[in-house]
Design a protein that fits this description.
6 helices; mainly alpha; globular; 8% strand; Four Helix Bundle (Hemerythrin (Met), subunit A); 206 residues
């Protein structure tokens, strides 16, 4: 299938943002933004779960229960991600790298399923990773699935309201082109947050 011309810039932006964030978390080098590679070490489990302020939302052992102001642990397996049904707490809880990365992986994987899959996956079907290696693998898998969904999109689908039926967003009420833009926005802004948390972790006072 030929990629619709108006989708190409967003697909290229997605590829760039994914690669930059993946390299930022795994190393051995990352894109500095000016064409120069900068050495970066792989993210450790301690860094992945680091809570820089009290009462962070994170991923936790299910047996320990949810964190402060959370009412449930979303996901499958022995670990889950802090969550609560709407309305969400105000002010919003500060979230760890683990929380943000789990959120991105869920969004990519479920949106792919609700676009070209059997459209049945929920967040409680997805395994939540207790460590950095597992989280990076889940992120890569989700990005691959979402990219496949994009490559299977034609011009008609881009304008179709509800082409994605992802149940945790406005997808059923929006043209698919708007959802593609939104996913890129999510990847870019959460990627920047994760990058900043890596910088703060490296510079913290021990």
């Amino acid at each position: 299938m030929t990629t619709p011309p108006r989708l190409i810039p967003l697909l290229e932006q997605f590829d760039f943002a994914y690669a930059r964030l993946a390299d930022r978390m795994a190393g051995p080098v990352m894109d500095s933004g000016n064409g120069t590679d900068v050495a970066v070490g792989p993210m450790t489990d301690d860094e992945y779960l680091w809570e820089p302020v009290p009462d962070c939302w994170s991923v936790r052992r299910r047996s320990d229960g949810p964190g402060a102001r959370a009412t449930e642990l979303a996901g499958a397996g022995d670990w889950g991600r802090d969550a609560t049904p709407p309305p969400h707490p105000e002010p919003p809880p500060f979230t760890t790298i683990a929380w943000r990365l789990s959120h991105l992986s869920e969004m990519l994987t479920l949106r792919a399923d609700h676009t070209i899959g059997d459209r049945t996956l929920t967040r409680d079907d997805l395994h939540v990773s207790k460590d950095a290696a597992g989280a990076l693998a889940a992120f890569a898998s989700g990005a691959t699935a979402w990219r496949k969904a994009l490559l299977g999109t034609d011009e008609t689908a881009l304008d179709t309201i509800g082409h994605s039926t992802y149940p945790y967003g406005s997808d059923p009420d929006e043209p698919f082109m708007d959802i593609v833009w939104w996913v890129n926005q999510e990847l870019l802004h959460h990627g920047a947050e994760i990058a900043l948390l890596r910088d703060l972790y490296r510079a913290r006072q021990l």
